[in-house]
Specification:
The chain is an alpha+beta fold. The chain has one domain (6-305): Alpha-Beta Complex (Sulfite Oxidase, Chain A, domain 2), CATH 3.90.420.10. Helices cover 20% and strands 20% of the residues. A hairpin with a 5-residue loop joins strand 1 and strand 2. The chain binds ligand MTE. Residues 74-78, 132, 167, 186, 215-216, 228-229, 231-234 line the site of ligand MTE.
């Protein structure tokens, strides 16, 4: 996987509008095809809200999946453990207006409106490979902003060692929360240096448009070097903490889902190997691909874990 840092990027690459537009056209073709059979809540034939958002410097140069692959096969246990049912049931969620509670070890706690957060954080597009702990992967063109740029605006104190994220709790709408499959609400967390890493991303859109509800609208985390369960959806609270947060999957099965959850082909899940992954959208004859350590982002993120035994802190 190629990740370009600002220093690596040539000005000719930044200004080559023709190349940029050609790639956009390809993405639009994929999205356009999907709109013919749009899900409930889909906005067939409407202009894409984020079509003019620039490609960010950390975007990977990878061919993206079709929109259908990403938007119809979703893990969203608040609605259902079934990927198709979750996709349909999530359409019941109201996502406007949306606010974010910020508290804990922070100088500027409060309740922030999402529209104000969006005004303060310029949007960019990031193409990332996304690797689920269930051994499948896809490549998604997200739209959003670096997590660090938002967190810095809240001014964490020197005691903030971790960041805890919480999903909305509303069992009337999120019907999966009526079951005890997880200890609700869904909580995830990052160490503060992980959260401040330039690859950690807050997504509000994908495929040039608003984020579909089933993919975590209106605000979700994307941490490309970690298994997908870290990328928490529909975030309503960010809490800066001294202590490591207790996270949903880790509480559910600590021997299977660690706090760190860095993609690592050398550490098998207790019930399956992590060596290879099925690429969504491929037919049954498409060979699996070899899973890359840190999902291919090792050069950028391995220093975060220098000296740590990755088999112990999995
Ligand atoms: N966030 C919440 N709130 N609830 C969930 O069930 N599933 C996680 C993650 N974030 C989940 C969540 C898992 S297991 C994965 S693989 C990704 O979301 C899936 O993201 P996607 O459905 O957009 O592909």
């Amino acid at each position: 996987m190629i990740i370009k840092t600002k220093a690596d990027i040539l000005s000719s690459e930044i200004t080559d509008r023709a190349v940029f537009e050609a790639r956009r056209t390809l993405i639009k073709a994929a999205v356009g095809a999907s709109l013919l059979t749009a899900l409930p809540g889909g906005a067939a034939m409407q202009p894409k809200k984020y079509a003019e958002v620039p490609v960010g410097p950390y975007s990977a140069q990878l061919p993206v999946n079709a929109f259908e692959d990403v938007s119809r096969y979703t893990n969203y246990y608040e609605f259902s453990t079934n990927k198709t049912d979750a996709t349909v049931l999530a359409q019941a969620l109201t996502i406007k207006p949306w606010s974010l509670m910020v508290d804990g070890e922070v100088e500027r706690p409060g309740v922030y409106q999402l529209e104000d957060i969006l005004k303060a954080n310029p949007l960019e597009q990031r193409i990332y490979r996304f690797r689920c702990v269930e051994a499948w992967s896809m490549v998604v063109p997200w739209v959003g902003f670096p997590l660090a740029s938002m967190l810095k605006q809240f001014k964490p104190t020197s005691k903030a060692g971790f960041v805890e994220f919480t999903t909305l709790y509303n069992p009337d709408i999120m019907v999966g929360q009526r079951s005890s499959v997880l200890d609700w609400p869904y909580v995830e967390g990052l160490r503060i240096d992980e959260a401040m890493h330039p690859l950690a991303f807050m997504a509000t859109g994908m495929y040039d448009d608003e984020l579909p509800k089933q993919n975590g609208a209106p605000l979700r985390l994307v941490v490309p070097w970690k298994y997908g369960f870290k990328s928490i959806k529909a975030i309503v609270r960010i809490r800066f903490r001294e202590q490591m947060p207790k996270t949903a999957w880790n509480k559910n099965a600590p021997h299977e889902y660690g706090f760190y959850a860095n993609v690592n082909p050398d550490v098998p899940h207790p019930r399956w190997s992590q060596r290879r992954e099925r690429v969504l959208g491929g037919g049954i004859f498409t060979p699996k691909r070899d899973t890359e350590k840190f999902n291919g982002y090792g050069e950028a993120v391995a220093p975060l874990y220098a000296g740590m035994d990755l088999a112990k802190y999995f």
